[in-house]
Task: structure prediction
Amino acid sequence: MDKVKLSAKIREVFGKKTKKGKKEGLVPAVVYGKKIESKSLWIKALDFSRLLKKAGESTIIELDIDEKDKRNVIIYEIQKDPVTGKFIHADFFQVRMDEEIEKAVELNYIGEAPAVKELYGVLVKSLDEITVKCLPADLPSEITVDISSLKTFEDHICIKDLEISPKIKIELDPETVVALVSPPRSDEELEQLSEKVEEDVTKVEGIIKEEKTPEGEEEKKGEAKKE
Result:
C-alpha cells in the first residue's frame, strides 16, 4: 500500500512546558520501536488530522523528523481531550518493512441491506475492527464489509466472506459473524417491552404512581406509612 507522509520536529520540552506548543497548534508525540532509541517530537495538529481523515489509523506513515531522519511508523496510540476532542498526545511505533506486525484494522460497512430496507430489520454489527498480522507494506487502511448481501434474516457475513488479501493473517475463527440483520420486534414484543419499562420505572426510588380509588380520590402508592 502507499505510504503517507508526516513531518515532525524534535521536542525538547515536557510536561506542563508543552502548553505553549499546544496553543500554537502542535501535538506532543513520541516515536519508539525495537532496539531503537525513543525520540520526543512535535507534530502539527492540522497535518495529523488531515492524515487521519485521508488514511485512517491503520497505515504506514513516513515520518520525516527535522527533514533529515525518515522512518516508517504506524500509529500505536492517540490521546484526545475528552471535552474538546483535541489531540493531547500521539505514539508512533517504528516498523521494519521485512518484519510482520499486528495491528487492529477498522471495518468499513458499505452498501444497503435489503433485509433492513424491505423487511424493516435491524442491522447488527458484531465487530468494529479486526486485528491482522502482515508485513507493513501489506497493511490495509481499512477492511470493507458490503452488507448488500444481507437479503433475509437468515443471511449473515462471516470473517471468511470478507475480501482480504492472502498476505494478511487473521487469528479469528473464519466462521465468526461480522454482521447480520435481526427481525423487527412484533407488536406483542413492543407492548411487553413497554409494560416492563413502566413497571421498572415505578420501582425507582422517589417515583410514585398515582391511582384513583373507586370513590374518585387519588391515593399515592409507595408513600411511607405514618407511624
Residues 15 and 87 are 15 Å apart (CA to CA). The longest helix spans residues 187-202. Residues 4-95 form a domain with the Ribosomal Protein L25; Chain P fold (CATH 2.40.240.10).
